[in-house]
Amino acid sequence: QVQVVESGGGLVQAGDSLRLSCTTSGRIFDDYAMGWFRQAPGKERELVAAISRNGSVTYSVDSVKGRFTISRNNAKRTMFLQMDSLKPEDTAVYYCAARFTATAIAYYGRNEYPYWGQGTQVTVSS
Q: Are 107 and 99 in contact (CB under 8 A)?
């Protein structure tokens, strides 16, 4: 199985920033389209942002648009989520997801990603 590892979560105050990182095992890194999802207590896991295998297509949901930026550095085998102006409602476990693809598109559905990290906790206090 492909291993996915994310890191960078923590406890911060509203208005602060965090940068999450994710890497995958095996293969050439740009074989993977990737995404960030989050799950708050008592809620379903939801998409935050997605990126195509070569980084040419990016997407962020409206609730984080203008605050979060998804990017990747394929040479360093790392995908990032830069989170600025954090709000208490951003508090959640954040998951990195990956899938193999031969296309240049991004993917937005939970069920489109077979490989998942263990999650990293982001807590934003008011």
A: yes
Cα separation, 60 vs 77, in Å, equals: 21
pLDDT digits (tens, 9 = 90+) for 27-50: 889 999 999 999 999 999 999 999
Q: How far apart are CA 38 and CA 25, in angstroms?
A: 22
CA pair distance 118, 43, nearest whole angstrom: 17
96-109 in b/e form (b: 16+ CB < 10 A) is bbbbebeeeebbee
Amino acid at 45: R
pLDDT per residue as tens digits for the range 61-113: 999 999 999 999 999 999 999 999 999 999 999 999 999 999 999 999 999 99
